[in-house]
Design a protein that fits this description.
Layout lengths: L21 H15 L3 E11 L6 E6 L4 E6 L1 H4 L11 E11 L4 E11 L2 H17 L17 E6 L4 H13 L3 E6 L7 H14 L11 E6 L13 H9 L4 E5 L7 H5 L2 E2 L3 H8 L3 H35 L4 H38 L3 H20 L2 H69 L1 H6 L4 E4 L2 E2 L3 H6 L3 E5 L2 E5 L2
Helix pairs in contact: 4-8, 5-6
């Protein structure tokens, strides 16, 4: 039976009206609405957006007069290039249905897109302002790029001209190791894959089996705003800002700008330019090193020449060796004279002593002999035992005294020996230094004499012409001489003009 028969309204007919359950009535309404609005396109503003863990998207579509609930199933949401956000103006395509459990109608969205470029740019500006307010674009957080990275990680599509251009440019400038993390560069998979690639490179261990890169490049060729939208996603921007590895963004052409450009440490206008920013030119580095090496060699050579000239100038200012030895010679002569006079002075007292001994009185000598004899008699009268005991006691006292005095005498002897050794060593060092000083001065004077003498001039290719011992300085005089003697640096030669 059709629930909506076209019958004339004859007033209430309670006796003839059929009775329906709520389920039957709701099902009938559902069929009518789905048959009538099987496929519709709606232009509206996105209101509340809910993203449950199931992966479905629940949202409200509204204008200034009404609000309609909308559902995007998980399979459809995963294919969308741009997910709807609150405040975005969109065009949604789908079918109208009802939800009997809550007595409401809703649209099952099969496709949803921003309503023109203006709506997309408005979302972009709103997201940019929100992320900038968090400090993700702060220049103070940007890291300097390494001058010459050992390993470069490239996040891009494995096929296409972009990766070929980057590898070719790196090979031309300065070949480096490159790790490629393949990702989708547009579509719904772009943002999550790029995010995982940045985070994955940062999780690598430096120096491990798969080494961690020193620099990252996120690259993609040019395209429309919709094609590049994956690089405007919040997840990509946050992963870029949180990366511990310096990152260069090279998304699109020079006129294309995405949010990853503001969060990266350096923006390159093209992927080729990113490779140029990553490494220097090896040929230019080699040329620069050669130039610096040549400058260093010239500086060393000039320094040696200047110091040599200064040494020669100082050598010319040194006094002559004879002048340096005059004072020491005079002092030596004076000391020798004093030593001779001292010997002479000791001879006279010696003679006087000998004469005094000779003049001693013989009677005095006789008295001395008598006293010696009496002393011998007295010593003969002493008892041997008493004398022996006294001698033993005296020997013990002497031994005891010797034991007490021996350490002190030994220390005094060692002290005097050390003083004598130090004095001897100091005198020897002073004499050695004075001798070395005199030797250095004599050697310097000898070098100065050789420098100023004409023999040094002969070693530079000159010669001295003599005749009969006289130096010839004129060609006319030399022509009149019969025999000439020419002195070179290594000998003399006699020639006839």
């Amino acid at each position: 039976m059709d629930l909506f028969d076209d019958r004339p309204d004859d007033g209430p007919a309670e006796g003839n009206s059929p009775e329906y359950t709520i389920g039957e009535l709701s099902g009938a309404i559902k069929r009518v609405i789905e048959n009538e609005f099987g496929h519709v396109r709606v232009r509206a503003e996105v209101g509340r957006v809910s993203l449950p863990r199931s992966g479905h998207v629940y949202l409200d579509l509204k204008d200034d007069k009404a609000v309609m609930a909308g559902i995007i199933w998980k399979g459809v949401a995963s294919k969308l290039t741009t997910l709807p956000e609150e405040g975005m103006e969109v065009i949604a395509t789908g079918r109208i249905t009802t939800f009997p459990g809550q007595s409401k109608y809703q649209i099952i969205i099969e496709d949803i897109k921003p309503a023109g470029m203006g709506a997309l740019m408005a979302v972009l500006e709103k997201r940019k302002a929100a992320l900038a307010a968090e400090g993700l674009f702060d220049p103070a957080h940007k890291r300097p790029l390494p001058y010459l990275p050992e390993i470069i990680g490239v996040i891009t599509s494995p096929s296409g001209a972009v990766i070929r251009d980057i590898l070719h440019r790196l090979r031309d400038r300065f070949p480096r190791k490159v790790l490629i993390w393949p990702v989708a560069v547009q579509g719904a998979k772009c943002a999550p894959e790029v995010t995982r690639a940045i985070e994955g490179f940062n999780l690598l261990t430096p120096g491990g089996a798969l080494p961690r890169p020193d620099l990252l490049i996120v690259a993609r060729g040019g395209g429309s705003v919709e094609d590049l939208w994956g690089f405007n996603e919040e997840a990509v921007v946050r992963a870029t800002a949180a990366s511990d590895i310096p990152l260069i963004s090279a998304v699109g052409h020079e006129t294309d700008t995405t949010l990853i450009d503001f969060a990266s440490d350096m923006r390159a206008p093209t992927p080729t330019a990113a490779a140029e920013l990553a490494v220097p030119v090896r040929v230019e580095l080699v040329a620069y090193l050669d130039q610096q090496n040549a400058r260093m060699s010239r500086a060393l050579s000039q320094g040696l020449v200047q110091r040599g000239q200064r040494l020669r100038d100082m050598a010319r200012a040194l006094p002559r060796a004879e002048t340096l030895l005059e004072n020491p010679r005079q002092r030596l002569d004076r000391v020798s004279d004093r030593l001779t006079r001292a010997k002479t002075l000791t001879e006279a007292p010696k003679l006087r002593l000998e004469r005094a001994i000779a003049r001693l009185d013989p009677a005095l000598m006789t008295g001395v002999q008598q006293r010696k004899m009496r002393l011998a008699d007295l010593s003969g009268g002493l008892r041997p035992a008493t004398l022996q005991r006294r001698l033993s006691q005296d020997a013990q006292r002497i031994a005891s005294l010797s034991k007490r005095l021996a350490p002190a005498l030994e220390r005094e002897r060692a002290l005097q020996a050390a003083r004598y050794s130090r004095a001897t060593q100091a005198l020897s060092d002073v004499g050695q230094r004075q001798l070395q000083n005199w030797q250095s001065q004599i050697a310097a004077a000898e070098r100065l004499r050789r420098t100023l003498g004409y023999e040094a001039t002969l070693e530079r290719g000159f010669a001295v012409v003599r005749s009969g011992g006289a130096v010839i300085t004129s060609s006319k005089v030399a022509a009149n001489e019969k025999t000439l003697e020419i002195q070179f640096a290594d000998g003399k030669v006699n020639v006839s003009p």
